[in-house]
Design a protein that fits this description.
This protein is an alpha/beta fold. It is 33% helix and 20% strand. It has a six-stranded parallel β-sheet, with helices on both faces. The chain has a five-stranded parallel β-sheet with strand order 7-6-8-9-12, with helices on both faces. Helix 3 runs parallel beside helix 4. The longest helix is centred in the N-terminal third of the chain and has 12 residues. The radius of gyration is 18 Å and the shape is globular.
Length: 260
């Protein structure tokens, strides 16, 4: 698709399906990150994964051979904490989630509690319990506001799909009738908070993703140049099913390098 925008000065890129797949770097990923750093382009690697802290994710990428500083990683947990800090500074939250989410909320000045919290916050969890879900339901019924890091219903693993944040949120919604506010992709708020972090402007920022229904639509709504790569969830034959199109469709991140 033709693109008459000026060359991007800042870059946002999804992680899984764009840079890595099942712990292995995709073709061109190392060179893409290297070109960004060599030319001093502000960039962030985005992920809806709320399980891990940026330090954890940087270490996991390093094991794949990708050197990405932890300050260049922006997760749905960080975006959620940033949103809550702007909405209710110094608030309280009951959390279903892992260290990526609890650490982000602590660093945003939040107190985690199961006693009359301002919010119930749900992220991806590897240790979900019936007791915690029951607590969340009762706290929402008592007036706590309902937030979730992202709407993804499954997450990938080498053994197959795992139930993710959206699935847990749906369970709580079914029990309470309360719909959560999702902060992560496809909410363009995640992109806007990321751009604020690196001082980027929408007219000079590009988003590289592998999913039409999250990366591309959120990028369009945030006013960014959008680049779909065909190494992840969305295949070339899927694009015409959507009522919107990315600025560019490329085979892989390898083809993005010359645009930097």
């Amino acid at each position: 698709m033709a693109n008459d925008r000026k060359p991007p000065e800042c870059w946002l890129t999804d992680m899984d399906g764009v840079l890595v797949h099942e712990g292995q770097p995709l073709p061109g990923a190392l060179e893409f990150i290297g070109r960004l750093r060599e030319r001093g382009r502000p960039f962030l690697v985005l992920t809806n994964n709320s399980v891990f802290t940026p330090r954890d994710l940087a270490a996991r990428l390093a094991r794949s051979g990708l050197t990405v500083p932890e300050e260049a990683i922006w997760t749905s947990a960080l975006a959620t904490a940033d949103f809550l800090r702007s909405q209710s500074p110094g608030g309280t939250a009951f959390v279903i989630g892992e260290s990526g989410l609890t650490t982000a909320l602590h660093e945003a000045g939040y107190t985690l509690t199961d006693s009359d919290p301002d919010y119930v916050v749900v992220g991806e969890s590897r240790s979900l319990s019936f007791v915690k879900v029951t607590q969340a339901v009762r706290l929402i019924e008592a007036g706590a506001r309902f937030i979730a890091t992202n709407p993804d219903v499954t997450s990938p693993s080498p053994e197959g799909s795992l139930p993710a944040t959206g699935s847990v949120a749906a369970l709580i919604t079914k029990a309470t009738g309360a719909e959560p506010y999702f902060v992560g992709k496809p909410n363009p708020m995640m992109f806007r908070s990321a751009m604020n972090r690196i001082g980027a402007r929408s007219e000079s920022t590009a988003m590289v993703g592998d999913r039409m229904d999250t990366d591309v639509v959120a990028g369009i709504e945030a006013g960014l140049e959008t680049i779909l790569v065909l190494t992840g969830s969305t295949k070339a034959g899927d694009v015409d099913r959507f009522p919107y199109r990315p600025s560019r469709i490329l085979d892989s991140i390898q083809d993005v390098i010359d645009l930097i």
